[in-house]
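In this supplementary section we document a worked example of the pipeline. Step one takes a protein sequence of length 675 as its only input; no multiple sequence alignment statistics are reported here. Step two produces a three-dimensional model, which step three serialises into structure tokens for compact storage. The input and output of this example are shown verbatim.
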Amino acid sequence: MRWYAHRGNIRYRLLRSGLGIILLIGLLSFGTGSYFWRIIDTATEIRNSTGNMLTQRSLARNAEKDFRLSGLLESEFYQGTTTQNLLKHHAAMSALEAEIQKIQRLLPDDEEDLIHKLHDLVDGYRGVFVDLVAAYRQRGFQEWGLEGEWRRAMHEVEGYVAGTQNVFALRALLTLASHEKDYLLQNEPQYIDAIRDDLQQIKRMMLAQRETPSTAVLKAVEEYDTAFTSYVLMQQTIGMTDDVGLRGELQRSGQALEPIFQEIGQKTIEAGDRARNTFRQVISLIWIVGLSVCSIILYFHAKSITQPIIQLKDAALKISHGDFDISLPIASDDEVGVLANAFKQMASDLESTQQALKESEEQSRTILDTASDAFIGMDQQGFITDWNRQAEVIFGWSHQEAIGRRLSKTVIPARYRTSHLTGLQRFLTTGIGPVLNTRVELTALHREGREFPVELTIWPLQRGQTYLFNAFIRDITERKQTEEVIRRSEQRFRTLTTQAPVGIFLTDAEGDCLFVNKRWCEIAGIAPEQATGQGWADALHSEDRKRVVDEWSTAVQGGREFALEYRYQPRQSEAIWVYSSALALRDEAGQITGHLGTVTNITERKQAEQMKSDFVSFVTHQLRTPLAGMKWLLELAAEAGEAPPETLSYIQDARESADRLIKLVNALLDISRLE
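The serialised model returned by step three reads:
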């Protein structure tokens, strides 16, 4: 008869009692979990909605920035059309309000004031944004709005001033245009006064003309002042920065939303945490009570069958503590009696070898526990037999937890376990193991599930017909990370120097060249190996070589910045002008370890400067000098007075034309000097 066929059997009673208690605990746990998980799900939904509100707020802020960066440059906006950025902003705010409505349905009634406050802040933000959009549309851009009126007045004034051919007025007009450009680009208040001063200067020059200025000129100046003032007032209403005006109000309105979002999220997290903690406490209490009842029942059931083996337990404890002098008054011939005789024989055998084994074990354990590497022992079935302190540190398993576990499931990643077992079986069958008695780098598994690189040495030890495997393992994570950082740093430096549009060079602390990039070689006209040491100086122009070498030596010896313009002379090519600069590289102690510098080709700039100089010389000698002589001859002809009146009229016209040409040449020379 099977044991479960008799209801009086001890194992049957134990099973029935255990299943009843487990069922009761399960029902109580399920009911409690259902109640608390509903609360947690509500808190999670509110937290997700809070995250969605932050996301929509971020999208609205991005749409607002895109509107200011690109939307204000689109003509459709000033024609009354709603741009894509405004549509995105409206969609984000609508989605944010939908999330607020969702949270309002989920939050308890005592949080209604918080939701009303959030509604008011959102409405205020949207109102300020609408006002800001209207202000931007009114301010305009280029030919639209107030800026368009200002530009039209600007062009009208430029037309009148250019018609006067007054060099000083033209110069004032150029200054005015420069200040206008600076104000439009930078929106700095000082340019407002500068523009008004320039305008008044132009007005005074117009009034100082020998001919009476026309009403149209003065009217154009007044219209310019009126249009500019209107534009400035509107710009001030909008705000010069994000701290003032409508822009500042919009910034503050948006920032006021974030504390409310955070408050809702924090309250939701706290409510969820409280529900979880309460759930854990109730479940823990249910299990504690259930297990206590189960333990009491099991205790009374087990007590009736454990008394005969208590003496065996005491004897086993004495042997485990090294006391082999045991007395077992058990004379039965059953399994307990056989077990008692086995204990006596075991005590006799162990006592004879205890002392020698104890000394050897203590010595080996001391060595292994103080080793800087992890030590792991494994039997031929793959179970861990030894585990030192460093193994606990590296792999996260304590000695008690690791002993007896399968090595493949403890320190080997899942994808390598089949290979490990296959290699172990092949060694036990053939005696061949490629990774034995050699140092290899592998990937190991931590208790937390993360993988890390290790350096491993394994050697087998045969005892009779069985094998033991011992291994020293070293965590090389930091070494690998350092190697990876160095590799990436070298790769970034190579990429930078290869793609850089300027020449780059690197020297040691004494100023001897160690490295030059491809662009440097193209400029200097020599190969990288020719530039090492002091070889770079051979590429210098012969007239500049001493000056550059002396300046470089002075900068290196003094540890200061090097900056100089000079020429390279590539073979079979014209000289190349460059601007070179370099800085000293220092270690953590402040000692110079080298110098890093750049070389920029400025040949085109030098050529442009020479062309400008030639132009000034040409205008001075080839135009102004002949015109002066022409004017003098015309004045002599006019003073003679012997020509007919018609001829004198032609002479007078020629004199006036010569005067205008001389003024034009002088104006060109003045402008070139100003540049």
